[in-house]
């Protein structure tokens, strides 16, 4: 996945012209500023939300994205469940797991994952993947392995993990999507 946050529409167009079709954005508003035009020109693009989603922006996200990777709390599951009957498009939904149990990061805590997955089943919210951002400065391999364990346990198709600094390790552990920003656009992205 090409992570296009803070990148201009023109910069993203280069990747689209080169044939790339999977992109991620971490802010709903910023994505709405850039992507309607790009998606009009490249209709087979898939755009993933990889940043936090406020419950009052669910409809807004459903209007643009193809996947929300950051389902992480009961209130958001409830809002999505309430919205689904009105949804005009199918979106893939991933649960973000706070795999390092870091207070500053979003994502469901590992010990709260079973309850959240139960709620998703109960409310008819289909989960097709898990996503994580492991702690920086330590070997991410044990975290990636734990993610792969959850993937097997819950039988979800996708594992979105690995960024510019650790994508090779993530792939070794079974990532199906690596999210790459700075390696493609340079420092500061
Ligand atoms: C910015 C971002 C990335 C890309 O990180 P890089 O280290 O620049 O490759 C991946 N995932 C999320 C959620 C991000 O916000």
Structural notes for this entry:
With 189 residues, the chain is an alpha/beta fold. It has helices at 9-17, 28-41, 58-62, 74-83, 113-122, 141-154, 167-172, 182-185, and strands at 2-3, 22-25, 46-49, 67-71, 92-96, 129-131, 158-160. Helix 5 (113-122) links the parallel strand 5 and strand 6 (129-131). 36% of the residues are buried. Pyridoxal-5'-phosphate (PLP) is lined by residues 3, 5, 26, 50-51, 133, 163-165, 179-183, 189.
What features would you highlight for this structure?
binds pyridoxal-5'-phosphate; 7 strands; 189 residues; alpha/beta; seven-stranded parallel β-sheet
| Share in helix | 25-40%
Q: Which hetero ligands occur in this complex?
A: pyridoxal-5'-phosphate
Instruction: Give the structural class.
Output: alpha/beta
Q: Which sheet architecture does the biggest sheet show? A: 7 strands, parallel
Proportion in β-strands = 5-15%
Compute the average pLDDT. 97
Give the overall silhouette: globular
* Total strands: 7
Give the SSE string. EHEHEHEHEHEHEHH
* Spans where pLDDT lies below 50 across 5 or more residues: none
């Amino acid at each position: 996945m090409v992570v296009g946050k803070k990148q201009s529409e023109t910069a993203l167009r280069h990747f689209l012209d080169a044939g790339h079709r999977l992109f991620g954005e971490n802010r709903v508003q910023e994505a709405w500023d850039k992507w309607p035009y790009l998606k009009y020109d490249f209709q087979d693009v898939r755009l993933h939300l990889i940043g936090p989603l406020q419950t009052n922006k669910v409809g807004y996200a459903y209007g643009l994205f193809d996947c929300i990777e950051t389902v992480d709390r009961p209130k958001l599951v409830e809002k999505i469940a309430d919205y689904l009957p009105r949804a005009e498009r199918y979106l893939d939904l991933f649960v973000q797991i706070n795999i390092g149990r870091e207070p500053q990061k979003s994502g469901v805590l590992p010990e709260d994952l079973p309850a959240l997955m139960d709620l998703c089943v109960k409310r008819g919210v289909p989960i097709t993947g898990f996503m994580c951002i492991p702690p920086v400065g330590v070997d991410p391999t044990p975290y990636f392995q734990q993610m792969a364990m959850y993937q097997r346990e819950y039988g979800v198709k996708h594992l979105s993990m690995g960024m510019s600094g650790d994508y090779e390790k993530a792939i070794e552990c079974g990532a199906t999507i690596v999210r790459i920003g700075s390696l493609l656009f340079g420092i500061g992205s």
